[in-house]
């Protein structure tokens, strides 16, 4: 997950610039278009392929197939994450910016609280099949379209 986070941080400024150039909604949709198939790929690939070492990098260390996929996810997640709050704020007036920002952070934090528990239940009810988390993530990504 460190590789995901590192690329998210590196791509934050370019994601904002892309959102300014092609539009926030278009950037968000582009990010979701790339994220969805990556979740499916991670779900479908066997662990022996996902853990196959591809390269050794100075800062990142050993980079397996799953590491590359997570780096791509981090890069395109920046398109979604960086552009969503400005897009929400564009929907309101100056008098309601604080309310909309609060609602955004409430939903964002609530998701961060619920997600680990939901993942645990998914793994538990699937007979310890951790790959099911990727299938659920794909479902939530598709639900994010509207």
Total helices: the number is 7
Average pLDDT for all residues: 92
CATH superfamily: MFS general substrate transporter like domains
CATH architectural designation: Up-down Bundle
Main beta-sheet strand count, sense and barrel state: 2 strands, antiparallel
Instruction: Name the strands of the widest sheet in spatial order.
Output: 1-2
Helix content: over 70%
Q: State the oligomer.
A: single chain
The number of E-state strands comes to 2
- Return the CATH topology: Growth Hormone, Chain: A
Q: What is the radius of gyration?
A: 17 Å
Query: What general outline do the C-alpha atoms trace?
Result: globular
What structural class results from the helix and strand content? mainly alpha
Short key terms for the protein model shown above:
146 residues; mainly alpha; Growth Hormone, Chain: A; 6% strand
């Amino acid at each position: 997950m460190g590789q995901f986070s590192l690329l998210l941080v590196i791509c934050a400024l370019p994601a904002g610039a892309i959102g300014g150039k092609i539009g926030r909604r278009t950037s968000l949709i582009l990010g979701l278009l790339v994220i969805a198939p990556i979740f499916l790929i991670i779900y479908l690939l066997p662990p022996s392929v996902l853990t196959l070492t591809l390269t050794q990098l100075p800062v990142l260390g050993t980079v397996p197939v799953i590491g590359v996929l997570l780096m791509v996810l981090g890069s395109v997640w920046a398109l979604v994450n960086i552009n969503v709050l400005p897009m929400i704020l564009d929907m309101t007036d100056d008098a309601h910016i604080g309310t909309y920002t609060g609602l955004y952070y409430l939903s964002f934090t609530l998701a961060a609280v619920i997600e680990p528990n939901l993942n645990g239940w998914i793994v538990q009810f699937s007979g310890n099949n951790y790959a099911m988390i990727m299938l659920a993530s794909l479902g939530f990504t598709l639900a994010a379209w509207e």
